[in-house]
Amino acid sequence: MTRTPLKNTTQMSLGFGPKATQKTKSSLLPTGDWILLAIVASITLIGLVMVYNASSLIGEKTYHDSLYFIKRQLQWLALSIFAFFLASHVNLDRLRLGLVPLTLLVFLLLFSVLIFGVEIKGARRWLKLGGLTFQVSELAKLFTVIYLAHYIDKNRAKLGNFLEGAMPPLILLGLMSMLILLEPDFGTTIVILCITLSLLFLGGVPPKQLLSITIVTLPFFIYWVTSSPYRLKRITTFLNPWAVASEGGYQVIQSQVALGSGGLTGTGLAGVKQVLFFLPEPHTDFIFSVFGEAFGLIGTTLIVLLFVGILWRGTKIALNASGPYRQILAIGLCFLVVLPALLNMGVATGLLPTKGLPLPFMSYGGSSLVGNSTAIGLLYNISRQSRNTSGWMAS
């Protein structure tokens, strides 16, 4: 028997409801959830300030240009704004019709990365496009959400049967995740796995099936981690970073030092010491720690609340959206942005092993910025077609 999907607090279920009506108002940015946009814009502006602050000395030392990283980030931001506008105007029903060629494209690009990809620090995750490099796994995350939203919508009656319901998407996304693991990119694989299980659960797959899947796959992940000295070292470093303070634990320790140095109100941008080459890559994976040193507990709490705000607005959009396809798509896009943020903060604070995941809209990195901007664009697209008026009335 198929479980009823997630329900709206007002009597609407995730799988049912009147068809949304497209707003016909003509403008560059049709009316949608402007609160969501304000939150994302705030995080992005904070990110630009922090990328410059954290990368200027590295840029000067490496490229003899203190503006090197911020200029590239601004270039990616321009492309991200274009991706947002494109996603906010795309026909969502036509989008799902292109899933077959999109599936082939994603797998082709993932295979291409393993053969022709750019290798950085032992990982082959990027394809070179002109003078820029692009991380294909960002496209894979978007594909996961769109595919699952379409699949759950079309197969609601079969989701109670494992062979006809959960197995087909698990096989497809499992193969895709294997290719991402080979890069290797364990962090993105975890994100895709969590999103997949969450959306299948919300879509109506019985919890017993999902628990069984988790139990069956757990030994594989344990073997995959323990079979590699490098991956095993990450786990042991996480458990006791001070035992390897001069090696693998150095990053984690310096991250915690930065957060601790910030105290309640922070040292200010001019007082940040971790940009002085103590913390490796302060403008990418550990930008949250640099921000914590500059603005203290008050500042980091603000960042956490902003991402909670994205979760809040994304959930509202999902509950107000019409039909299971848009509702599953909305909550999946929300998870796609918020989950990596939680994992990044967990790593920065020492609560999770290092995974190499950027902080959405804050960390330096074009692929992440474009991918997340596309996700927010699609989410905004859904919000402007919602049953309820967006903004304060929907809050």
From TrEMBL:
UniProt EC number: 2.4.99.28
Catalytic function, reaction form: [GlcNAc-(1->4)-Mur2Ac(oyl-L-Ala-gamma-D-Glu-L-Lys-D-Ala-D-Ala)](n)-di-trans,octa-cis-undecaprenyl diphosphate + beta-D-GlcNAc-(1->4)-Mur2Ac(oyl-L-Ala-gamma-D-Glu-L-Lys-D-Ala-D-Ala)-di-trans,octa-cis-undecaprenyl diphosphate = [GlcNAc-(1->4)-Mur2Ac(oyl-L-Ala-gamma-D-Glu-L-Lys-D-Ala-D-Ala)](n+1)-di-trans,octa-cis-undecaprenyl diphosphate + di-trans,octa-cis-undecaprenyl diphosphate + H(+)
PROSITE patterns, sorted: FTSW_RODA_SPOVE
Transmembrane segments: 34-54, 74-92, 98-118, 162-180, 186-203, 210-226, 286-312, 324-343, 363-383
Membrane topology: Multi-pass membrane protein
Regions of compositional bias (Polar residues) in chain numbering: 1-13
Signal peptide boundaries: none
Keywords: Cell cycle, Cell division, Cell membrane, Cell shape, Cell wall biogenesis/degradation, Glycosyltransferase, Membrane, Peptidoglycan synthesis, Transferase, Transmembrane, Transmembrane helix
Residue segments, region Disordered: 1-25
Pathway per the UniProt entry: Cell wall biogenesis; peptidoglycan biosynthesis
GO molecular-function term, one example from the UniProt record: peptidoglycan glycosyltransferase activity
Name this protein carries in UniProt: peptidoglycan glycosyltransferase
Location within or outside the cell: Cell membrane
GO cellular component terms, semicolon-separated: cell division site; plasma membrane
InterPro entries reported for this sequence: Cell_cycle_FtsW-rel_CS (IPR018365), FtsW (IPR013437), FtsW/RodA (IPR001182)
An individual GO BP term: peptidoglycan biosynthetic process
Major location category of this protein: membrane
